[in-house]
């Protein structure tokens, strides 16, 4: 007989039994011993079909290939840029991965990207030594204009995005703000109305603080309605909205 011993989004601790039987399979942060699945670390439970996995409550961003992130220029050389990616490791953007245009040898790369500027970019390679390469050649990857930069725990990003982009889309629609969420925990935000821009910032901070709790979407909806004084709808079918401007 299969029994789930905890509920989705419950916070669990290492060694805690999560399920008995063979109907569930262990995912990230969990392991099986015989007919039992246990937690390997502190985190909140996420159920994906038959898979049980744990989302850590905190932690530094660990770069992965194909992640879409926000990065900040910290150094410029003759042929590449070095970028801060909100991690223990920095990343490199070569000229060939930054543009399809011809760039003369010895050109001043600060004319394209300079110190302190932010970009939306994609990780295309991570070596075992954590040498990280970026690209700006995919659709939607670009230099970001002026706006607010927010920082949240990277493990909370899935909750800020929501299922199929529903959460971030709800905030965008309610505040009329442009929002770009990086998987590394950096978020760019811009609104024409400073008051609504601040509401969007508060909503994101609330999600970051309460990401491990249930009923979060409804609470954010209520918060936005109270702050904006207007009804808010929860989008249901959104595709990859988290990286749109």
Total individual domains: 3
CATH homologous superfamily descriptor of the largest domain: K Homology domain, type 1
List low-confidence stretches.
Answer: 238-245
CATH architecture of the largest domain, by name, is 2-Layer Sandwich
Task: Indicate the CATH topology of the largest domain.
Answer: Ribosomal Protein S8, Chain: A, domain 1
The main sheet comes to:
6 strands, antiparallel
Structural class: alpha+beta
**Rg measurement, Å:** 20 Å
What top-tier CATH class of the largest domain fits best? Alpha Beta
Spatial gap, N to C terminus: 49 Å
Q: List the total number of helices.
A: 5
Number of strands: 17
Strand content: 25-35%
State the helicity in percent bands: 10-25%
- Helix and strand element order: EEEEEEEEEEEHEEEEHHEEHH
Mean pLDDT: 90
The shape, in one word, is: flat
Overview of the molecule:
The chain has 245 residues and is an alpha+beta fold. Helices cover 20% and strands 32% of the residues. Strand 9 (68-76) and strand 10 form a beta hairpin. The radius of gyration is 20 Å and the shape is flat.
């Amino acid at each position: 007989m299969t029994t789930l011993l905890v509920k989705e989004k419950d916070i669990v601790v290492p060694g805690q039994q999560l399920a008995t039987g063979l109907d569930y399979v262990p995912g990230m942060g969990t392991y099986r011993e015989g007919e039992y699945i246990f937690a390997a670390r502190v985190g909140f439970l996420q159920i994906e079909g038959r898979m049980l996995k744990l989302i850590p409550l905190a932690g530094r961003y660990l770069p992965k290939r194909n992640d879409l992130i926000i990065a900040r220029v910290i150094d410029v050389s003759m042929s590449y840029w070095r970028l801060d990616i909100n991690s223990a490791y920095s990343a490199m953007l070569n000229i060939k991965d930054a543009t399809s245009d011809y760039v003369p040898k010895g050109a001043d790369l600060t004319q394209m990207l300079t110190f302190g500027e932010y970009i939306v970019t994609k990780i295309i390679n991570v070596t075992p030594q954590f040498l990280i390469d970026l690209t700006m050649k995919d659709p939607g990857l670009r230099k970001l204009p002026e706006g607010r930069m927010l920082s949240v725990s990277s493990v909370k990003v899935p909750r800020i995005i929501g299922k199929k982009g529903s959460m971030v889309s709800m905030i965008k629609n309610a505040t009329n703000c442009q929002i770009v969420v990086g998987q590394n925990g950096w978020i760019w935000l811009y609104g024409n109305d400073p008051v609504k821009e601040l509401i969007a910032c508060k909503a994101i901070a609330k999600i970051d603080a309460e990401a491990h709790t249930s009923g979060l979407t409804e609470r954010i909806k209520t918060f936005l309605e109270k702050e904006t004084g207007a009804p808010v709808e929860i989008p249901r079918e959104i595709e990859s909205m988290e990286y749109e401007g």
